[in-house]
Amino acid sequence: MSSKLKKEIKRLNSILASNDNEKALNAVNKLLKDYPHNSYLVKMKSLILSKLEKYEELLKLYDNYSEDIYKNINLVHSELDALKKLEDIKGEAIFLNKSLIYHPDDFHLLNENENIFSNFQSTNNDLEFLKELLKVNPDNIEIYMNLAHVSTNLGLYFDDPSKHQDAIKYFDKAIELCKSDSNYGNDPSYIYITKGESLAMSKNYDEAIKTLDLIGDKDDNADVKFREKSIIYRKLGDYDNALKYIDKAIEIDSEPYLMETKGIIYLCMKDYDLAMEYFNHAIDNGWKSYYYKALVLKEKGEYSESISYLNKIKENEYLAKKGWVDHEYERAQKLIKEINLNN
Description:
By secondary structure, the chain is mostly helical. The protein has 21 helices and no strands. The protein has helices spanning 3-17, 21-34, 39-51, 55-63, 67-71, 73-85, 89-102, 107-115, 124-136, 141-158, 161-178, 189-201, 205-212, 222-235, 239-252, 256-268, 272-284, 290-299, 303-310, 317-322, 327-342. α10 runs parallel beside α12 (189-201).
């Protein structure tokens, strides 16, 4: 770095220290005309634009440096933040996935990678975008996982068996990648859980149980495995095995949602007193088992009490804002109408 440039940068830092960001921007722009490829000046300008919240201009700056941006993790974080501020979700997902090719172990990028896919979970358009994203980063496990989830949801919504078959292919690819990825501990057991859930949703219960049984009884996910097996056996009407496996799950983890799961088994067995006991236990420990408690009260003829618990189920504002169906709220409203109609 020349002595002249060092002097100019020192002057620029003085301007920044005085918080005159507009003046600093003018100064750095003049310097970049003479030194367009100086990475320090690019970082300085990006910092100034961020302070001024000029995110569109910041992205234009980065466009001028194309591949060079990906090599500097600080600039990557800065561009990602700008895309987030502009709420350019698709642009953020594309940039994030290309960045992960350069920085596969960066904690911030990996964390964003887990979170961003909640925006693409329900429609055919989401499915097509995820397929395009796969072309950017074909080794991203999270893309395959979310392709599997969207395919499962679409298969259920349209009653399309081919979508369920696609989901299994995506799960299997995620499992294959996970086995050789240290960021996932080389352990695909959590994927076996979601694959098992997907198989169960498509009523492929035998394959679901086989998949869940790939998880060891001492695995960190064993409690989830036992719970999912319990739910499957309940759906099959095998209540003895349903109770056996939910008890195994509760031995490991006595969380209130597991009490709800056990209560549902007794509800299906029409043992309403025991069902109520477990739903009350779940509610007393912070789990909102209102719908199931309302079902028991309805079966016992306590209709006003049943409706009072159904009214505790409020519409999810986040789902409403997204335009997504709130299934819990809808089923509560449907049961209220049924009670009012028949009594």
